[in-house]
Structure formats: structure tokens, C-alpha cells
Amino acid sequence: MCGIVGLYAKGEEIADGLGSHLAAMLVQMNDRGPDSAGVAVYREPAPPGWSKLCVFSSRTAEDWPVLVAALEEAFGSAELASVRASHAVILVAAGAEEAVAWLDLRDDALRVMSAGRTIEIYKEVGLPRAFAERFGLGDLRGSHGLGHTRMATESRVTTDGSHPFSTGLDLCVVHNGSLSNHNRLRQVLRREGIRFRTENDTEVAAGYLAWRLREGASLREALEGCLDDLDGFYTFLCGTADGFAVLRDPIACKPAVMAETDEWVAMASEWRAIAVLPGSDDAQMWEPEPGVVYAWERQAVA
Amino acid sequence: MSVTAAVETVETVDLATTPLRELNQRLHDLAGRPGPTRWRILHPNGAHAVACGLDAELEVEIEGHVGYYAAGMNKRATVRIHGNAGTGVAENMMSGRVVVDGGASQSAGATGRGGLLVVHGSAAARCGISMKGIDIVVRGDVGHLSAFMAQTGTLVVCGDAGDALGDSIYEARVYVAGAVNGLGADCVEKELREEHVDQLRLLLAAAELDDVDPTGFRRYGSARELYTFKVDNAGSY
Fold first, then answer.
1. Are A74 and A53 in contact (CB under 8 A)?
2. DSSP string for B165-206
3. Average of per-residue pLDDT across A274-301
4. B65–A271 C-beta distance less than 8 A
């Protein structure tokens, strides 16, 4: 199963409560995915010349200031923006790619969950309500965000196997479905230099998108490539710096519903996740067609 | 002589405060027993399995959007959804009537054996999949693979139909007024004769769609060319 939610704020009121709205949507998707939960929230851009990393530590009590001091030494300037449960947001006065490369080599207990200017990915095993409380989602303000509740089918229930998966700077994907050609595709992508941490099928989809984007495809082109190159069932919701995009497999095995009001655009696996949003009774509502990319962005997706 | 007017009360249940199972149990308890026949359900908020498994002559009005399998397995009751319906609305309906004012998600009326399903908006993929006697009237469009393996009954689409309409269809009838994006395996267009226009007229009237012209449809059905239709294969088992 798995549940997907996404929310794009058109105005300040929804942006102010983005985290609590996302949390309410996630809780509605509890029954679709009780194994783990996660969100990507786009918020508070890093200053020009800086990048923002969201780092997970598998240690029970990570000494974040020590890590930040080491980053400071390596890049001149770094700042601990916030700590939420097992994750910390760190600002670094360097390009995101350099900082990620540095962190990847440092310590096996640390993982960069997201990197870019605005994205913050938080994910953890457990029920969505407990996740939302533990990570204090309620006080996250942001322009847009997406979330996922997981019912594991293809790989173990771990933090690494939870969604969202990063697909590049300020990019991520959540997935409802299962892919059947992920082992072969993982081999192909490894030869292209894409790294994988788990046996998870969605991580392969994320790696595929990251590879296509790296090779110069637009997000729309990369998603349309999924129709040819991925075998299996999927509804994907992709987060970008400016919005999000939705794609369902060509026979629409997995559910998806979208709705829009003057205040917001929302996507979810089921209506009950959208029903909790203010003004949902009067929202325009529809079901995305199979095999068609839908995108909401401040600028149109190329 | 005094006349006492029978006042028909409407039983109102608010799903914001009443558990869904309690509502469904109260409705199930009316099978073969006396009790209120008119029901109004508030705040469904996309809940699954609202008013499913009914077996009594009830009139149920649902004020809002419902989730999966609303009014599933319905027998004799009339259920009207003033909103949109999720996957599998009126699935396996036996008799009675289910009306969706908005749109329906995929597999509307799936495997239905009788009764009438009316969707005033559009229905998504696989509308009427494996239908076995139900009549379905959709005011808008239907998605791909509608009437897949449809056995008996009638699917009336006043708008357009998606790809692979009527794939592997048996004896069900499909009528489409708009464009058909593609026919599935063994599904062909057939002549629309007077008897079919008569059937359409009756179904559109039953669905209370007075402004749809029954002569403006095309008829589709089975070419009976697939393996199962070949008498030579009958002795293989």
C-alpha cells in the first residue's frame, strides 16, 4: 500500500501552518503505511553562497555541535539551524555537493537525507502521529511539502528505506507501489556512478530520476522516462524547489487524487487526507490520468 | 373524523461524532426488521465503506465525499452521495440504486450483479469492470479499461471513453455518446437498433438524465472471437 500526501501553499496562511497541515494529512494515511513516515518541507532558503543539509544520525545522542565545528573547519563557516529528533539542519558556506561529499566520507552513522537551498527531509520508522510529534512538524512553516507513510513490501523497515528519497539538490520523490525491475536497473545505475544504500525499489526510482536530471533531462522528461524504463506499479510525487509533480503508471494501479482551492493545491492517495485541509469542502477535485505528468510550480516545469 | 398525518422522520448521523461501524451496524440491523427508512449522513470526510452492505428499502443521503467501497454490496436501498466517491463505489451491488452527484474513482460498479449506478460527474478507470448484471449510467466520461470482462448488464457513457473499452467483454452492452479512445481486445462497434434506443431511453429516464438524447449513442459489444467463445475449445476440459 503506502500513502502519499503533498501540499502547495498559494498564500501565507497555509504556508504558516504547512507542517501541521502535512502532519494532519499524514495521520489520515496511517492505515496505508504504518511502518514508517517521512516528509520533505521546502522552507527558509539558505543565504546566497550557503547550502542547507538535513543530516540523520543513527547514534542515539549525536553531538551535533562537534560536527558543525568540523564543517566550519573544512568550509570556513557552518551553522546548526535546528535539531529535530534524529535529524539536524546544518547550513554550510559551501556548495551543497562539496558539503555532501565531505559528510559522506566522515562517518558511517551519518546520512545526508537532503541537500540544497530550501529542502528539509525528515523520516523515521513508526506511525505517522508519533513521527509528527517527535519531529515537531507542527511548527514547520514552508512554501510546500510532501509526505509518505510506508507499508514495506520490497525491503526492510529502516530509516534509510523510508521515504522521501532525495533525487538531487532540492529534489525528492515519494512512491506508492512496487517496482519489479529495480535490481537490474540498480546495476545499470551503479555503473553510471549513482550510489545506493538499501535494497529498496523506490531508492532505485530516485536514483533513476537523479541520473536523468544529471544527464540534462528536465523533471518532466525524467518522469516521462519512467514510463519506458520502470516496470511495476507507481504513483510518484516529486518535490522540487518550486513545487511538485505527479506521475502515475500507465494503467494507474495505485490511487491518486488532487484538489485545488484559491489557497492551496493538494495531492494524496485518498480524499480523506485532503478532507482535513481548510476549505476542502469547496475544493475542485479530480483524479490524475495515468501516464501523464502533472506539475505545480511557481514557474512552469520545462 | 380525525386524520393523523404520518410524519416521516429522517435519522441523521454525524460521522464527525459517530463511529462508522456504529452507523453501518444500525443500517445492517434494518435488514428484515422495522425501523427508520430515511437516513442522512453528515461529514463522511472520505471515510471508507460508508453505507455498505445494506439490505433494506432505505433512502440514504450522504452529505459529502466518501472513500473506498461506498454503498458496496448494496441490496434494495437507494444511496445518494452528494459529493465524490473513491474506488469501488457500489461494487458488487445486487439491487437498488446508488447515485453519485460528483465524480467516481476507479472500479465504479465493479462486479455489480444488479441495480442502477448513476454517476453525474465522470468515472475513472475500470468503470464496470467484470460487471454481471448491473446497469451503470455515467453523465461524464469513463477512464481506461472500462467494462473490462463485463459479463452482463449495461454501461451507458454520455461523455467519452478511455483506452481499451470493453476489453474481453462477454454479453454486456456498452453505449457511448462521445469519443472512444480505443477498443479493447474482442470489443467491436455494433449497430444501434430501435430496441437499443428504447433501452437507452429507459435507462436515461431511470437515471433522471432528461436532457440526453438516446439516439446519439454508439453501441459496443463482444465480437465473440476470443478463445472462450470457440466451441472447439469446449471439449478441452
1. no
2. BTTT--S-EEEESS-BS-B-TTEEEE---HHHHHHHHHHHHH
3. 84
4. yes
- Out of A275, A286, A290, the one facing B46 most closely (by C-beta) is A275
- Kindly indicate the confidence band of residue A281, based on its pLDDT and cuts at 50, 70 and 90: confident
pLDDT in tens, B11-53: 999 999 999 999 999 999 999 999 999 999 999 999 999 999 9
B228 touches chain A (CB under 8 A): no
Domain CATH for B207: 2.160.20.60
What percent of chain B has pLDDT above 70? 97
Across the strands, what pairs with A175? A236
Q: What is the pTM of this model?
A: 0.88
Q: How far apart are CA A50 and CA A91, in angstroms?
A: 7
The per-residue pLDDT for range A154-200, each reduced to its tens digit, is 789 999 889 999 989 999 999 999 999 999 999 999 999 998 988 99
Domains and CATH numbers, chain A: 3-41+128-297 (3.60.20.10), 45-117 (3.30.70)
8 Å CB contact of B143 and A281: no
Asked if residue B234 belongs to a domain, the reply is no
Rounded to 5°, angle at Cα B40 from B35 and B41 = 115
Chosen for mutation from B15, B63, B65 (greatest number of chain A CBs closer than 10 Å) is B65
Nearest CA in chain A to B44: A272
- A2 labelled catalytic: yes
Q: Best residue in A272, A274, A276, A282 to probe B by mutation, most B CBs within 10 Å?
A: A272
Does residue B236 fall inside a structural domain?
no
Number of domains in chain B: 1
Q: How confident is the model at residue B5 (pLDDT cuts 50, 70, 90)?
A: low
Would residue B221 count as lying in a domain? Answer: yes
> Does A288 sit behind a cis peptide bond, omega within 30 degrees of 0 on the bond before it?
no
Q: Is B127 domain-assigned?
A: yes
What single-letter DSSP state applies at residue A23?
Answer: H
Q: What is the pLDDT of residue A295?
A: 87
Instruction: State the residue range of the domain holding B89.
Output: 11-228
Tell me the shortest Cα–Cα distance from A128 to chain B, in angstroms: 18
